[in-house]
Structure formats: C-alpha cells, structure tokens
Specification:
Elements: E1 5-9, H1 13-25, E2 29-33, H2 36-45, E3 50-54, H3 62-71, E4 80-84, H4 89-97, E5 102-105, H5 110-124, E6 136-139, E7 142-145, E8 150-153, E9 156-157, H6 162-172, H7 181-189, H8 197-211, E10 218-221, E11 225-228
Parallel strand pairs: 1-2, 1-3, 3-4, 4-5
Antiparallel strand pairs: 6-7, 7-8, 8-9, 10-11
Helix pairs in contact: 2-3, 4-8, 6-7, 6-8
Length: about 230
C-alpha cells in the first residue's frame, strides 16, 4: 500500500501526541491539527490517506467537518474515523449519517486504533472485502464491481459510502439469506466492532434511498434483520 499520511484532528494536545507517536511507530506520516477549520485547510493543501477526527471540537464540530469532507468530490472516498468520548446512539448515528466510515470511543487502545485505521485503508484501496468470490455481482438490476468499488443501477453509477458498499456486497453475496444487524456488522467490520443496531438501520435506509426503485429488494425481516431478495 505504501506509506500513508494521516490527518489527526483533536483539540486535546495529549491525545494528538499519543496518536501521532503510535502512528509514526507504524511508519505512517502524520499531520496534527486542533480545530475543524485547520483540518479543512490541511485537507485542501495536502489531502491525506485517512482522517482521525474528534467529535467535540471548538468552533466547527467534528460532525460538520465530516459532512464537508464527504461532500467534497476530492475527498468523498477518504476514510474518516470519528473519535468520541460519547457512546450515545444519537452521536454514533449522526456520524454515520454524514459519512463517517468508523468510530472509536475514548479511551481507546492504540493497538485497536491502528488496527481499525489499517482496515479502513485496506477497504479504500480495495484490498479487503467482506467475503471472497467474484469481483462482479449482478442482481435485480444492481451491478456491483468490487475491484472498481463501483455500484450501478440500470447502468447509472450510485455513489455509496464505504460502509454502504460493504453491506450491499455482503447481502448480494448471500441473496435470500436473512442476517441480523449484529451479523452484518461482524461480516464487514469484525466481531470487535462496537456498533448499535440503530446505526445498521441508518445504513440500510441510506442504501435503499440511493438505490431508488431497486432499494425495495433489500427486505426487512421483522424481529430478525435484513436480506436481499434472491428472485
């Protein structure tokens, strides 16, 4: 993959120093800033491979910073991992809704942070897929090309976040099978990913909207979870 440059955004200097130290030990290049405004300027000047972004920042908060990053065509594929001391569902859901690719709660293990960062970078570079198999899938007019990280409906490209893409691919590789919210997250993130059931619902809702008429093929099985119709 080569050396990646990581942008760290946190107003707590000790957190910046801790993360920077651990990332440099893993041979990542690091740029650290303490505000959302500085983060956006840094993104524009020298786009990073990924962003570690604190939720609570002075002035522009992490949610707004993430929203602006993901709305910019230059950065929409750049992984954003939210750092937060909060564990309320609403904060997690809001972060995912604006495009965050992952979130890590404080206090965190530096080893876990590095592992989650590596996983996000692998997904960005197409080196990690929730399941093995063909790089091309087609079902119900939805065409998935995992090598290109591209989804098309009726030959029109559908822009999906990394998490939405991973969920759709997982369901498409297992058509007709019903999966619980926990099983879906285990498949695309790993069993140690601390996610809420509500955040899975948000991702599915976003998928359905973006797939338009084809979104109805993702079915809710009440009391169980979700599946992609097999016919």
């Amino acid at each position: 993959m080569g050396q990646e440059r990581i942008l760290i955004v946190d107003d707590e200097l000790d957190i910046l120093e801790l993360i920077s130290y651990n990332l440099r030990k893993e041979d990542y290049e690091v740029e650290a800033v303490q505000s959302g405004e500085q983060a956006l300027r840094a993104m524009a000047a020298n786009p990073p491979g990924a962003v570690l972004l604190d939720l609570l920042l002075p002035g522009m908060d992490g949610i707004e910073v993430c929203r602006r990053i993901k709305q910019d065509e230059r950065f929409k594929e750049t992984p954003v991992l939210m750092l937060t001391a909060r564990t309320e569902d609403s904060d997690i859901v809001t972060g995912l809704e604006v495009g965050a690719d992952d979130y890590i709660t404080k206090p965190f293990s530096p080893k876990v942070l590095v592992a989650r960062l590596r996983a996000a970078l692998r997904r960005r570079h197409g080196e990690e897929s929730p399941t093995n198999g063909s790089s091309r899938l087609q079902l119900h007019g939805i065409a998935i090309d995992t090598a290109r990280h591209e989804v098309r409906c009726d030959n029109a490209i559908v822009p999906l976040s990394a998490t939405e893409f991973a969920i759709l691919e997982f369901l498409a590789r297992n058509p007709g099978l019903v999966f619980s919210r926990t099983r879906i997250i285990d498949a695309i993130r790993g069993e140690d990913y601390p996610v809420t059931e509500r955040s899975v619902d948000v991702q599915i809702l976003g998928l359905r909207k973006k797939l338009g008429a084809h979104g109805s093929h993702i079915e809710t099985v009440r009391g169980v979870g979700y599946r992609l119709k097999d016919e």
